[in-house]
Amino acid sequence: MLLLNRFLIAFAFLQPAAQGEFVPVKPGEGTEQLPAGPLVIAAYAIIWVAMMFYLWTIWRRLNKVETDMRALERRKSTK
Q1: CB crowding 46-72: b at 16 or more within 10 Å, else e
Q2: How far apart are CA 55 and CA 59, in angstroms?
Q3: Helices and strands (H and E) in the chain: how many
Q4: Using CA atoms, how far apart are residues 69 and 63, in angstroms rounded to an integer?
Q5: Which of 17, 26, 39, 68 has a 20 to 30 Å separation from 5 between CA atoms?
Q6: Rounded to an integer, what distance in angstroms lies between the CA atom of residue 47 and that of residue 12?
Q7: Hey, what's the torsion of the CAs at 48, 50, 56, 59, to 10 degrees?
Q8: To which H or E segment does residue 25 belong?
Q9: pLDDT digit string (tens) for 11-66?
């Protein structure tokens, strides 16, 4: 068990051999990609949804305040 543990620790510290020179990419082998693209789109979508929800809650609260003001105005005019 101790031998296996030491082997795993030594294996964890092994690094791949460094590349000694520039190796050009062969045509068609590697293409540039933006793997973060879907994450950026998701982040913008979340922000837009959160902003719309916030504006909706403000709209609801404003309507409630306006309703309360109308009720107070009616009370004032009846007295």
Answers
A1: eeeeeeeeeeeeeeeeeeeeeeeeeee
A2: 6
A3: 2, 0
A4: 10
A5: 17
A6: 41
A7: -100
A8: none
A9: 777 766 666 788 777 776 666 666 788 889 999 999 999 999 999 999 999 999 99
